[in-house]
Specification:
Blueprint (H helix, E strand, L loop, with lengths): L1 H22 L2 H21 L21 H23 L5 H20 L1 H4 L5 E2 L13 H23 L2 H11 L1 H6 L4 H27 L1 E2 L6 H14 L6 H15 L4 H18 L4 H13 L3 H16 L1
Antiparallel strand pairs: 1-2
Helix pairs in contact: 1-2, 2-6, 2-9, 2-10, 2-11, 3-4, 3-9, 6-9, 7-9, 10-11
Length: 317
Amino acid sequence: MNRALRVLPYAVAIAVALLLPRAMYPVLALDILLWGLFAMSVDVLLGYVGLLSFGHAAIAAKSMGVPFAIAALVGAAASAVLAVPFGYLAIRRRGIYFAMVTLAFAQLVFYVANEWRDLTGGENGLHGVPRTFPGLALGRSTDFYYAALPMILLGYLVAYRIVHSPFGHVLVAIRDNEPRAQALGYATWRYKLLAFVLSGGLAGLAGGLFALGNGFASLDLLHWTTSGQAVLITILGGIGTLWGSLLGAVIVLELRDALTSAPELSGVVTGAVFVLIVLAFRRGLWATAREALRRFATPPVSARIDISEGEVRHGRS
């Protein structure tokens, strides 16, 4: 019974993912899942290592006639490889200095992509990115959504395993007290570098599928504001909650979609919602809701004492 209850939330989540394109535009449904995965990659650093990175948007996805799945995996691998030298230099700093270093790297990649027009298209970006797979017709957005869904779920599974493994527990220890983790014999710089690379790979997977799903990769994807939006999504859902990233993506993208007719209000409304949530739910929506459910499901201390005393009396009688 307990095992069935543990599996139930995941079954419900998969069912929601399968039905999502029927409840909204398939393109919007795909964007929500991909921004959620992107924000999860940020949360791996921000919530579980305590490192705030503004360099995750350094992704350029371009398919060269190969199946879209291979193109997406190549994008993830390229992003992970790019994260190695950047992470090696960035993890030598902490706090705001780490954030500034990754911001500088993001702007460096943005400049290179803008100047390397033969490969990236410069300011025009990459247009007409094909999405093909042998035996499948992926012309419709709905078809591509279901074709890409297994890879997206795989990305979620990888993020979940990262943070719910001994490796993830070490990351939390480093976040809470890095000198103590070092005293216990952990090479903390290796753990932080590997977390940086894994986070970059997840971001690369999300970016590659985003470019393939939308048929273009604009230069704006390399700007630091893209990573800033992912940080916003992570904070709204709850830092260190992982699944809160998906909830934050739903809120931000639904607001943006609802305000398409008034784009000048998008930033104002999103900012107001962000301030409201930060002030009213300081731990984020997911963590607050989870804590409320636990309190609702757990009886008060006095009630538990009365119940235990009643059981003892009943046993003695």
